[in-house]
Specification:
alpha+beta; Extracellular Endonuclease, Chain A; 4-stranded antiparallel β-sheet; two-stranded antiparallel sheet; 6 strands
């Protein structure tokens, strides 16, 4: 099986009731919900509350006038179209300090963070 076939099979077999469209750049700060470059398949529990709580905290700073540098990447540990983790990093001129990994699993699991904003885990 070729790589593209693995991806299609993995996404097709990803349970519909458990899945969410994970925005890499959150909709809270203008990330597109239709541009496929900004979307990855996530389990609902990874998307909300884990990832959305982090994004909301970053958005609060942005909407309050803070200049924030934000980077996010999907982390794949196997040949699949489904990321195992999402890594979010943000730093701002008013104290935003985020460095968190959200585990893409079908259960509630807190993000693993090493930043001061989230107190580290």
């Amino acid at each position: 099986m070729r790589r593209g076939e693995w991806i299609l099979q993995d996404i097709t077999n990803f349970p519909g009731v458990l899945r969410a469209r994970g925005h890499l750049a959150g909709c809270q700060f203008g990330g597109s919900g239709t541009d496929l470059r900004n979307l990855v398949p996530l389990y609902r529990q990874a998307n909300m509350p884990a990832m959305s709580a982090i994004e909301n905290r970053i958005a609060t700073g942005i909407h309050g006038g803070e200049a924030v540098h934000y980077e996010v990447s999907a982390v794949y540990t196997k040949p699949s179209g489904i990321p195992d983790y999402v890594h979010l990093v943000a730093s701002g001129n008013r104290g935003t300090d985020v460095d968190c990994y959200v585990h893409n699993v079908p259960r509630d699991e807190p993000p693993v963070c090493s930043s001061q904003t989230y107190g580290g885990n």
